[in-house]
Write a structure and sequence with these properties.
Blueprint lengths: L1 H16 L15 H23 L4 H34 L6 H11 L24 H15 L6 H22 L11 H20 L11 H13 L5 H21 L7 H30 L7 H4 L2 H26 L6
């Protein structure tokens, strides 16, 4: 159930970013998928590692290595694709929104999942300039490390305090900025931090209070419809963003955990596995498409054709998972993780 929702959330982000190539905006709130990803992360990591970390069988250093081995292969590929696009654009067009020093310096920081440590003069200056969605991976690693380091002290009461405080701060920040699309730039860095903390520790709380499955599997489709409705509702409202993150998504996560899936379904598993590669490579693909359209003077092509990028990106994500990410992570997992 979580695999299915994670996959549809990644597709929601893809539809949100299709406006990069000039397609109509069908998912104006697709950026909210990131908040759902943080909640899923809190739940899944608690389920997989909480007991081992609490018992001391898994050290924080080993846990960090496991997370970096999981995230780096695809993040480095996505970064390479994005940086390659910006370098080619600079070489052929002799101009770019980022200077060469910003591209190369930013890539050096971003390769370690660290944000670019300076402010550039670019019109839209992001902390991960050549592959903007990677900003959330930086926050993900940070909150993973914080949770693992404090896990013996972060009991249920403490998790409630963290989610209550960050939930309030997040609501105020969203109302101040008029949107929850925060975290990709230094000016919205604080908003990204509270998004991450609230989402992750909400997932931790759902894991603590996880119910035994008792709901029918058929509820999956209404939940997917609800998720799609949140992403696609054609309104601009900071209140809607805040309500979606603070109320709708935690309820959606809880209900999905409560659904009883009698047997593993391949389609749901595929949706879950394509989510990360789709999230990490779709923006470089879209940017490259923009460059090709301009180079061939086809930027005025009918927008309906641009939606062909959706199945292309999804199929590429499936291929990357099967032939790139899974083989690499399998090899890395076989190497014994030594304590630092």
């Amino acid at each position: 159930m979580l695999d299915a929702l994670r996959g549809f959330a990644a597709i929601g982000v893809l539809f949100f970013h299709l406006s990069i190539v000039g397609a109509p905006q069908l998912a104006p709130h697709g950026y909210l998928a990131v908040d759902f990803f943080f909640m899923l992360s809190g739940f899944v990591l608690s389920h997989s590692y909480a007991m081992r970390l609490q018992s001391g069988r898994l050290t924080v250093a080993k846990f960090l290595q496991i997370r970096m081995k999981r995230l780096l292969p695809l993040s480095l590929l996505g970064l390479l694709l994005g940086t390659g696009y910006f370098l080619l654009r600079l070489a052929f067009q002799k101009h770019s929104q980022y200077a060469l020093s910003d591209i190369l310096g930013g890539t050096a920081f971003n390769a370690a999942l660290l944000p670019k440590a300076w402010v550039s003069q670019a019109p839209t200056d992001t902390t991960f300039p050549t592959n903007t969605p990677m900003w959330s991976l930086s926050f993900e690693i940070a909150v993973n490390l914080l949770w693992a380091a404090l896990i013996l002290r972060v009991d249920t009461k403490c998790a409630w305090v963290i989610t209550a405080v960050t939930g309030g701060l997040l609501a105020l920040t969203i109302l101040k900025h008029g949107t929850a699309d925060l975290g990709a730039t230094w000016t919205t860095f604080f908003g990204g931090a509270v998004r991450t903390l609230f989402g992750f520790f909400t997932g931790v709380l759902v894991w603590h209070y996880r119910p035994k499955p008792f709901l029918p599997t058929l509820l999956l489709w209404p939940m997917i419809l609800l998720l799609a409705t949140v992403f696609c509702l054609p309104i601009r409202s900071s209140v809607f963003d805040a309500v979606s993150i603070v109320l709708i998504f935690p309820l959606l996560l809880y209900l999905s955990v409560a659904c009883h899936l009698q047997q593993k379904q391949r389609l749901l598993s595929v949706l879950g596995r394509l989510s990360y590669p789709l999230y990490i490579v779709h923006v470089p693909i879209l940017m490259t498409t923009v460059g090709l359209l301009k180079a061939t003077h086809l930027e005025q092509a009918p927008s309906c054709y641009l939606f062909a990028l959706v199945p292309i990106c999804i199929l590429l994500a499936i291929g990357l998972d099967k032939y790139y990410d899974s083989p690499i992570t399998s090899v890395l997992a076989k190497h014994r993780v030594r304590s630092l």
